[in-house]
Amino acid sequence: MNKQSTIWQHFAAAPHRSLFLVGALQGVATLLWWVFDLAGRYGVIAIAPSWSVAPIWAHAFLMIYGFFPFFIFGFLFTTYPNWMNGEKIRPRYFLTTCLLMTIGVVLFYLGLIAGRSFVVAGVAVMLAGWSVATYALLHVLIHAQAQDKRHAVVTSLAFLLGWLGVAAYLNWLLTENWLMLDFSRNAGIWFFLLPIVLTVSHRMIPFFSSRVLENYVLVRPYWILWFMLFCTVMHGLLQLWGLFSYLWLVDLPLAVCALYLSFVWGFLRSFRVSLLAVLHISFAWLGLSMLLFSTQSWVLMITGGESMLFGFAPLHALVIGYFASMVLGMASRVTLGHSGRPLVLDNFTWLLFIGFQTTAFFRILADMVPAATQMTGMLYLLAGLIWLACFIIWAMRYVPIYWQPRIDGKPG
Q1: pLDDT computed for residue 338 by the predictor
Q2: Cβ atoms 328, 394 nearer than 8 A
Q3: What is the pLDDT of residue 1?
Q4: Which of 13, 118, 202, 318 could crosslink 111 through cysteines, CB 3.0-4.6 Å?
């Protein structure tokens, strides 16, 4: 058996291998593109790049629909059968998903330079890959015999809403209908990413904590999950309706619930085990980001103003602090565990995780300083460079594992 076929067998041995690998490469690629655009925009380099799609909307799509889904698909393709004792996802589904999503992302980048038609083709191909993934996950959900499918039902509904978000973006590219773009970016955050990451957190953080912390009392009430999901969806709807001054009505309760869960799940105790601590720190960003959202909305209401106090700081606390940090933590854990390695986070990866937190800090700070200043642009660029450096190093450490056999000799 030649080396190429052996590597291919390793890729096809488990869903996370191919999808995490491309997700890592795509993370590097989208950050490289964004840092290059920022450097040109703020005069750090002489070239001021021009793209076929406005960079802010290209950046939003690449992050929401072209980066996180690779890791989410890889994670849930692996965990759905375990959650519900169902049939494993067949290679033809997860490899087809990975191939179509990869082709779509490549066409998207090509289209930013060569023309909008390539971007349209790329989003359409990604939508096809998304469809394959959603079908595979729904097949497991419907046919599994498990009595408790609550977490899987939520994540499956979120996938369907994410599919609609990609379709809306495609519609915007074709028609210039700004309502479609507005729905796409809001659906991606509030109807797709946050429901999935929140639901996975609700299921996995207390479970992992109970496995490694002594005398741990597992607290996982479902009523608080349903309430938090309600607040999440209402935030998205209020934002779509332009009712920004009323967001605090759902954001503040969501923040209180998140902070309560951080406390009862053992935030401080988690620091005894670094691999667990990264998940607890990531989740703590949810409470902080919603506090920022609620404060901004409340100030908007009492002042009757139109400008946002913190700008995009709450959004980036959510996306970088919560989503990206949780992806790093979960992806590291799955990669270690499913390669036969000990579930121990080394000091090197711990430092990378701290680097991610620094990224969130500088990106939030950029919206706190006076707008339209040179300092703002430099902070944007600094945050991007730190994230890029950390992600490149993380990829260099973990990506080779995806084409190597498990070190314990087991399949998968």
Answers
A1: 85
A2: yes
A3: 47
A4: 118
Regions in the chain scoring below 70 on pLDDT: 1-5, 7, 306-307, 370-374, 412
Residue 412 lies in a domain: no
Report the C-alpha gap between 278 and 204 in whole angstroms. Answer: 13
Give pLDDT, residue 76: 94
Distant-in-sequence contacts of 142-145, Cβ < 8 A, 24+ apart: 143/86, 143/87, 144/80, 144/81, 144/84, 144/85, 144/86, 144/87, 145/84, 145/85, 145/86
Can you give the pLDDT at residue 3? 56
CATH of the domain at 275: 1.20.210.10
Angle at 96 between CA 196 and CA 181, to 5 degrees: 50
CB 240 within 8 A of CB 186: yes
Contacts of 251 (CB under 8 A, 6+ apart): 231, 235, 290, 291, 293, 294, 297
Nearest Cα to Cα of residue 323 among 283, 364, 288, 290 = 283
Domain of 373? 13-403
Output DSSP code: residue 48. Answer: -
Q: Which of 184, 339, 205 is nearest to 269 (CA)?
A: 205
Q: Are 328 and 202 in contact (CB under 8 A)?
A: no
Calculate the alpha carbon distances from 222 to 148, 151, 202 in Å. 12, 10, 9
**Backbone φ/ψ region at 242: left (φ over 0), alpha (ψ -120 to 50), beta:** left
Q: Is residue 380 part of a domain?
A: yes
pTM above 0.90, yes or no: yes
Q: Other CB atoms closer than 10 Å to residue 156's CB: what's the count?
A: 19
Place of tokens 């655009």: 37
Q: What's the structural domain count of the chain?
A: 1
Domain annotation covers residue 144: yes
How many residues comprise the chain?
412
Tokens standing for 151?
């977490």
- Measured between alpha carbons, how far is 64 from 79 in angstroms, rounded to an integer? 21
pLDDT at position 5 is 57
